[in-house]
Amino acid sequence: MNMSEISVRVLDESEWSLYRDIRLRALAESPGSFTATLADEADRDEQFWRDRMTRSYLLLAERGELPQGIVSLGPDEQDSTAAEVFGLYVVPEARSTGVSWRLVEAAADLAIQAGYTQLYYWVGTDNARAIGFGKNFGFGTTDSRRPARPSDFHQGEDEIAMVLGLEPDTTS
């Protein structure tokens, strides 16, 4: 597959139903990867989804009209100079095609534009695949840990913070 066919864009609040559809698919297919469950979110009303759209940036990867994956970018709760990427999901048929990379790359670019100097990515301490992806992308492991949710204990009882220093784009 050609990486150039993948486009990434920030969803607008008016696209809440598109986000809902891919989010519910993510919860159904990868229940261990998210805080919420399908049951938590399946019956939520339009306002719930509209509110979700405005709390963080939601970046959608597409190949043509087909959603390939999604990631969220929001402010870090502890550090006002840092942003956090979370909710990374790629549809099964697009895995290992570079979609995760493109999503995180777009999120990092957006974080730089928003003035953040660091980007955090929390992963389960036993989630070797996610840690490997983070390291390959350029995230460094830190000493920061936080308890994982009970539903995530299969990926380790703790999550580790991975951090990426963001260099402002001085070329523009």
In which order are the strands of the major sheet placed? 1-2-3-4-5-7-6
Number of helices: 5
Uncertain regions: pLDDT < 50 for 5+ in a row? Answer: none
Cα Rg: 16 Å
Q: Write down how many β-strands occur, each being a DSSP E stretch of 2 or more residues.
A: 7
Strand-residue proportion: 25-35%
Cα shape? globular
Largest sheet composition = 7 strands, mixed
SSE order, one letter for each helix or strand: EHHHEEEHEHEE
Q: Taking all residues together, what is the mean pLDDT?
A: 89
For the structure shown, list the relevant keywords:
31% helix; 172 residues; 31% strand
Describe this structure in words.
This protein is of the alpha+beta class and 172 residues long. It is 31% helix and 31% strand. It contains 5 helices and 7 strands. It has a 7-stranded mixed β-sheet with strand order 1-2-3-4-5-7-6, with helices on both faces. Strand 3 and strand 4 form a beta hairpin. Helix 1 packs across helix 3. It is globular. The model has no long low-confidence stretch (mean pLDDT 89).
Topology:
Blueprint: E1 6-10, H1 16-29, H2 38-41, H3 46-55, E2 57-63, E3 66-75, E4 82-90, H4 99-113, E5 118-124, H5 128-137, E6 140-147, E7 158-165
Parallel strand pairs: 4-5
Antiparallel strand pairs: 1-2, 2-3, 3-4, 5-7, 6-7
Helix pairs in contact: 1-3
Short description:
31% of the residues lie in helices and 31% in strands. The chain is an alpha+beta fold and 172 residues long.
